[in-house]
Amino acid sequence: MSDAPLSTELPPVTPAAEHAEHAFEAGAWDATLTAKPLVTPERRQRRRFLFFSAVVLITALATAVFGDILWSLHFSAPRVLLLVLFIPLCAMVAQGFVQACAGYLVLARGHDSTRITSLLPNTIQPDQLPVTAIVMPIYNENVREVYEGLRVIYHSLSRMDALARFDFFILSDSNDPNKWIEEEAAWVELCKQVKGFGRIFYRRRRMPINRKSGNIADFCRRWGGRYRYMLVLDADSLMAGRTLVNMVALMEADPRVGIIQSSPVLCGGVTPFARLMQFASAAYGPIFSAGQHYWQLDEGNYWGHNAIIRLKPFIEHCGLPDLPGGGAATKYMSHDYVEAALMAKFGYKVLLAYDLPGSFEGGPPTLIDHAKRDLRWCRGNMQHAWLLFAKGFRPMSRLHLGLGVFSYVSSLLWLLFLLAGTFLWYRSTVPGAMVDVESTGFIIRSAHRLQWPWLDLMPLYLFGVMMTMLFLPKILATLVILKRADLCRRFGGAFRLVCSVLIEQVVATLIAPIQMLFGTVFVVSVWLGRTVHWTTQNRDFAGVDWREAMLTHWSHVLIGLAWSLLALRISPHFLLWMSPVLLGMVLSVPLSILLSHQGFSDLLRRARLLVTPTETLPCREVAEYTQRLSAYEEVVPPPQALWLHRGFMQVILDPLVNSVHVALLRQRGGKTDHEVGGYYRLLVERVLKEGPAALSKREQMALLLHPGVVLDLHSRIWLQPDRELAPWWRVAMSQYNLMSGRQVHLLQP
Description:
Blueprint: H1 30-33, H2 41-73, H3 77-109, E1 132-138, H4 143-159, E2 166-172, H5 177-194, E3 200-204, H6 211-223, E4 229-232, E5 238-239, H7 241-253, E6 257-262, E7 265-266, H8 272-296, E8 307-310, H9 311-317, H10 336-345, E9 349-353, E10 359-361, H11 367-383, H12 395-429, H13 433-439, H14 458-482, H15 485-490, H16 494-527, H17 546-570, H18 572-586, H19 588-594, H20 598-606, H21 613-616, H22 620-631, H23 640-643, H24 646-653, H25 655-664, H26 679-690, H27 697-704, H28 707-719, H29 727-746
Helix pairs in contact: 2-3, 2-14, 3-8, 3-12, 3-14, 4-5, 4-7, 4-22, 5-24, 5-25, 8-14, 10-12, 11-12, 11-16, 12-16, 16-18, 17-18, 17-19, 24-25, 25-28
């Protein structure tokens, strides 16, 4: 441990001007600043014309064929609805297909002069770069994983001799008293071990106003003036030191770049569901990212993490206005898309560094946790509908916002499409239905159809085209991997790679209708004005039991069974046609449990299926992070009653944690109130005589926010006779030394 004195002060607040040490005027990069632009207006126009022309052409042809199929039967109101729903759904599939094809051509060619990484110089001197702030907003996260990730990043930068060019900010909005104290204690321990005092800072807001965007805004107001760039990480983000240095160098290379978004790869998954998502990210992500850069170029998007931001224009132009309405609904839940649009609006480039390695993130461990995250994202993306026609936004920014909205609305449209198709098929089996339809005047005779010689096979052709657009991107991504023998081996070899792709496709087909039903409920809930709370994402392994699965999926099972019976009544052929959709609904409960089962995940790992390069040959940072987490022995667990209030116990019993907590509390009027009386005195007496369980979470937070109370409780706990303390405290004091001693031992680097 370091003998450095404990410093709990954050850097001086300089909102108006940059700090002299940190405000670096780019001089070493003058040669690159005058380089030829990566993208000319003519090239941008040509690429987008080719891309969107292909999307429109495919959609138009498929719509014409589908409309002619309906024409051949007869037009009716349900069939018109079917055609209307088909157009946006087909356009979405066509857009993904063309994007994947463009990405495949870029990667197959092996050269893309428009990529931002082409501006990187041959050698980079880290000491010539400006000091950059690495900020990590957290909210009731797994403290051990957050701080171990920061430790790995810190060590990676240290190995590059670039540590002096980065400051770390842990920005907490946690409202769980246990998490709050754990964060403070872990911060002190990390700083002591890596000698990070004065470089790693911790701040917790009293009021988590406006969630993550408010957390970042608070940092920008208080300390943004000290830094030219801000590198935003999520709680589960992990980035290599070289990647961080390269991102700063790229920002220095072009002063008109406002945001550079890296393309993070999922890693660290332990459940079958997480491994499936991880495999899809590693295998298919590259061609989709390259294809996305092909058409968006320097008008890209920002995903909220693993990205670097130029602070001056961000502070000046990216303040988020309130949405129409009132209350909490006026605050953005997904701020990143809007900030990218505002940055582009004022002439700054937003780029996707799709070929920059060394950027990683975690993902939800189960299907249910994935749905919970989607619920938050759905509300945030649906809010963007207000901005589709906002004044001054660029067309590409409107497209990004629109695609975000449609990514969730498409679930509802797909469900309506399937219901309309089922209704039409059912009507065709009802005696006398044709007479009823004819009497309404909605029929156009088949004599008016287009006379194509192969018209009878038209439905089969259309089905083949749609399936090709859905599955060919994954085939192309597999071909890219197979062409590189070294990369193919890191996916387990050619045979295992193909098997993994097939497994992923089968599971993706089964869970797609489940996600469709989830998405439909989310969209309808948002439209009905139901409140969506911003909860902590579950990033840990947590198996799904039968009770949780039944409570979550019972409606999916009932819908699947009822729909299957109706399909069987219509026709066995129709049931077979709908089986890929209905099977996933009916099997949603066992499927959700299987995809969270640790044993099934171990079986896949032993068979080397769904493996990714981050597992078979991980970079040093991923390997170090994984090793530290797996080697971290569990502390001897205390009784459950103690564990429920572990943070509260730690801040009251541990003199170091108690002192750190009091030092971190912002004192009103610059003084620490050591006098405890009135309302607080009653709470103190109750917690001493009855234990922490006697107080609500709100009352615990009130005590922890009062420095005098925290100091008084610490003194009285150790000085007061045992007979005057609650049994809870006597047990806590008897086990505390064992617990804290083992934790300190295990946290050693």
